[in-house]
Amino acid sequence: MNCHIDRVWEFFTDIKHLEIITPMEIELKISNATNQKLTQGSEFWLEGKLMMMLSKRSKWHSIITSYSVSPQEYLYVDEMLTGPFKKWKHLHKFYGADNNNNQKQTQVIDEIHFELPYGIIGKLFDGYVYKRLEKLFYNRKLATIRSLENNT
Question: Which range scores top for mean pLDDT: 75-79, 126-130, 131-135?
């Protein structure tokens, strides 16, 4: 994305970014957060159609378990404490670079590790949830680009 890493980091570590980049049909609402700015140990509580396959609303409670800023990369990890998944770990990585025109660019990488509840029955839905997550994160990418590149 054509945006300096510091600006992208500032955007993604503000808890409100979730309401900006999450598709409207999920009806995401931040019900509580220990900090407006995400840092090591920050906790947040969300409500919405978070499982993406159910029309019912659910609640989600996460904590930032890792947070690091270095010259090579910026990253943080959020892990679900309670919510619709048995396990959820989301690594957010940000890399900055100059392109050929000497413009600042940032690469945003999301790595998701999840486990559904209900044991072997839940495993049957892994592929479906994976496809839904791909679509969700593609839409989040477009919303991030719209938000940051159009408000430079």
Answer: 75-79
For 35-68, the DSSP string reads -SB--TT-EEEEEESTTSS-SS-EEEEEEEEEEE
Check residue 57 and give its pLDDT.
86
Classified as helix, coil or strand, 118 is coil
The confidence score (pLDDT) of residue 89 equals 98
Instruction: Tell me if the domain spanning 5-149 has CATH number 3.30.530.20.
Output: yes
Residue pair 1/144 in contact by the 8 Å Cβ criterion: yes
pLDDT surpassing 80 at residue 53: no
Higher pLDDT residue, 57 or 140? 140
Task: Give me the amino acid identity at 133.
Answer: L
Q: Hey, CA dihedral for 26, 31, 33, 37, is it positive or negative?
A: positive
Cα gap 96→98, rounded to integer Å: 7
Name the token pair of 53: 């396959």
E strand segments, the chain: 29-33, 43-48, 58-69, 74-82, 87-98, 104-115
For the chain, what is the largest distance between any 2 Cα atoms, rounded to a whole number of angstroms?
Answer: 51
> Tell me, what's the pLDDT at 50?
73
Domain residue ranges of the chain, discontinuous segments joined by +: 5-149
